[in-house]
Design a protein that fits this description.
The complex is a heterodimer of chains A (107) and B (477). Chain A contains four helices and two strands, in the order ααααββ. Chain A has 107 residues and is mainly alpha-helical. Chain A has a domain at 7-54: Histone, subunit A. In chain A, helix 2 packs across helix 3 (33-54). The relative contact order of chain A is 0.11. Residues 1-11 of chain A have low confidence and may be disordered. Chain B has 477 residues and is of the alpha+beta class. Helix content of chain B is 39%, strand content 20%. In chain B, the strands form four sheets. In chain B, strands 2-6-7-10-1-11-12-13-14 form a nine-stranded mixed sheet. The longest helix of chain B has 20 residues, at 219-238. The termini of chain B are far apart. Classes of the chains: A mainly alpha (107), B alpha+beta (477). At the A-B interface, helix 4 and strand 2 of A face helix 1, strand 9 and strand 16 of B.
């Protein structure tokens, strides 16, 4: 175990406004300047925690993505369950002829 | 300056499962919009993905077929991006730990055999479809395809020409159909290809900047798109310019590639392991079963056809192009019980030509393997000449019945009886004294005239070998 020096961490300004803008854009979030500043602080603190964890020597340790050894259960390849298109489409803002309609996307 | 082309391909093969990779919705192509997308595919809150075991089995089968490592543990990851046909806001894929790594595929090109490395193959889900036409200024979204299992097969940048890229693709296309893991239908998008293309001065070992070509949905377009792109890059570099790393769309109508600028920032996918899906674990028993149920692969079948039937490498290659064609040939050989090479000639000749003309595949051939065998037997035993047999084949194709029935009803039985042919030949010689004199005066080419006249007089039924032999004897001074 590595000792926690949390109190010193939030003084390190790890993320700037530009970083926040980029992350927000990737997540399609519109942030005000104030929100951006608040997130910069929060996220910097999280990164501080990550850097603290990064300090732990992990040479020779297999990365673990999931804390269970059993692994995935397989589903049999059979068509199952109901599909109620009308109910699914009913929650969409706009539909036509069985399609969801969204603002025009052009590649 | 001399340039070298470097190509790597990414193929998305839709796996032939009945249900989707993470949901029980059906995967059939062409259903009415959104009738095959359930709550999981539509990404309603609270749903959880459950892996279709068959998709894992198919990926493992592919891995074994290309001599790759099939990992006993692999991990699903989220690839995050926003697009309306991806309702979750992420695609479930595999990133750092794919199910298959380090395989190889042997291809045959005009310049010989070559091994192309396969970097990896990973499982992922397909997205839905966006429809832009006639939507009144909107985009329509059909989620039927969303969640269809895909195996993304990534090659090493081992190909050096558009022709090699096409050879690789065709070999891969044949293989996935042999393995029965993908139907290979390129029009329907079951087998899609993106090409990473770069050029570098010949002798240079570092890779040039590459462009990724998308939207190439036929073998012909792959070749054309790559050739266009290579010309573009060489022209650019030769005039002092630089290639930009970007995604380009192939426009088959104009035969050119165009920059797709919208992707500029999209490469930051922020992959992370999907917490909804534990590690994909393949047990030894599972892998052993996959190995046991492996069908005969194209290479092995081709070699067997050469050895067992005495065929040339070329014939064997043509006949093993698909499992169905190979099965047709073997059924015909067995039924005909004649020289297998003769059967091969008919399958790769008349039959293939007819299928090609009518745009049919072997499953829709109008002459069955047994029926073709019946005809080939009549050629082998001398009942009809090869030439007459072609007419019989046409009649069979038109549905007029079996070879024997057509030969009988049309009176096509070849005359091999010496005295009958001799009779016809005598009449022909008698009727053409001028030509006889010419022949005897040394004009040997008149011989073919006599052959023609004899065949005509026998209405094509005289055995040509016998006609030659008898004519030679009777024309001699």
């Amino acid at each position: 175990m590595v000792a926690c020096h949390g109190s010193t961490l939030h003084r390190i300004p790890l993320l700037n406004a530009e970083d926040i803008e980029k992350v927000a854009h990737l997540a399609r979030l519109g942030l005000t300047r104030e929100e951006g500043q608040a997130y910069a602080q929060d996220l910097s603190r999280i990164l501080g925690l990550v850097s603290q964890m990064n300090a732990v020597p992990t040479d020779g340790v297999e990365p673990m993505t999931h804390p269970d050894e059993a692994g995935l259960r397989f589903r049999e390849d059979v068509v199952s369950g109901e599909i109620d298109r009308d109910r699914l489409l009913a929650v969409a803002p706009k539909t036509r002829d069985g399609l969801y309609l969204v603002p025009k996307v052009i590649e | 300056m001399e340039w070298e082309t470097v190509i790597g391909l990414e193929v998305h093969a839709q796996l032939k499962t009945k249900s989707k990779i993470f949901s029980g919705a059906p995967t059939a192509y062409g259903a009415a919009p959104n009738t095959q997308a359930n709550v999981v595919d539509a990404a309603l809150p609270g749903v959880l993905p459950v892996l279709n075991g068959e998709a894992a089995r198919m990926a493992a089968r592919f891995g074994l077929a290309v001599g790759a490592t099939v990992h006993k543990r692999s991990v699903f990851a989220r690839k995050n991006y926003f697009y309306p046909d991806l309702p979750k806001g992420y695609q479930i894929s595999q990133y750092e730990q794919p199910i298959v790594e380090r395989g190889r595929l042997e291809i045959t090109t005009a310049s010989g055999e070559k091994v192309i490395g396969i970097t990896r193959a990973h499982l992922e889900e397909d997205a839905g479809k966006s429809l832009h036409e006639d939507m009144g200024g909107f985009t329509g979204i059909d989620l039927n395809r969303a969640g269809t299992p895909l195996l993304e097969i990534v090659s090493e940048p081992d190909m050096r020409s558009a022709a090699e890229a096409v050879a690789y693709l065709k070999t891969l296309h044949t293989l996935v159909r042999y393995l029965d893991i993908c139907d290979g239908n390129m029009q329907e998008g079951s087998f899609r290809c993106d090409a990473n293309v770069s050029v570098r001065p010949l002798g240079e070992t570092r890779l040039g900047t590459r462009a990724e070509l998308k939207n190439i949905n036929s073998f012909r377009f792959v070749e054309r798109a790559i050739e266009y792109e290579v010309r573009r890059q060489i022209a650019l570099l030769s005039s002092g310019g630089q290639v930009r790393q970007e995604t380009r769309l192939y426009d088959s109508a104009r035969d050119e590639t165009r920059s797709m600028r919208s992707k500029e920032e999209a490469n930051d996918y922020r992959y992370f392991p999907d917490p909804d899906l534990p590690t994909l674990v393949l047990t030894d028993a599972f892998l052993a079963e996959v190995k046991e149920t492996m069908p005969e692969l194209p290479d092995a079948k081709r070699r067997r056809f050469c050895a067992q039937y005495g065929l040339s490498a070329y014939d064997a290659g043509v006949l093993t192009a698909s499992r169905e064609l190979a099965r047709y040939y073997e059924e015909a050989v067995e039924a005909a019980a004649v020289e297998p090479k003769l059967v091969a000639n008919w399958v790769t000749g008349e039959l293939a030509a007819r299928l090609n003309e009518e745009g049919l595949d072997i499953a829709s051939a109008k002459v069955t393997a047994q029926a073709l065998a019946g005809l080939v037997r009549r050629v082998a035993d001398g009942t009809v000449s090869g030439k007459t047999a072609k007419d019989v084949f046409e009649a069979m194709w038109a549905g007029e019945g079996s070879a024997d029935a057509i030969i009988a009803s049309r009176g096509l039985r070849q005359i091999s009886d010496d005295s009958a042919i001799e009779e016809v030949v005598r009449q022909v010689i008698e009727a053409n004294p001028k030509q006889l004199a010419q022949y005897r005066a040394g004009e040997e080419k008149v011989f073919t005239f006599f052959v023609g006249q004899t065949m005509k007089a026998s209405r094509g039924k005289a055995n040509p070998a016998k006609v030659n032999e008898i004519l030679k004897r009777l024309l001699a001074p």
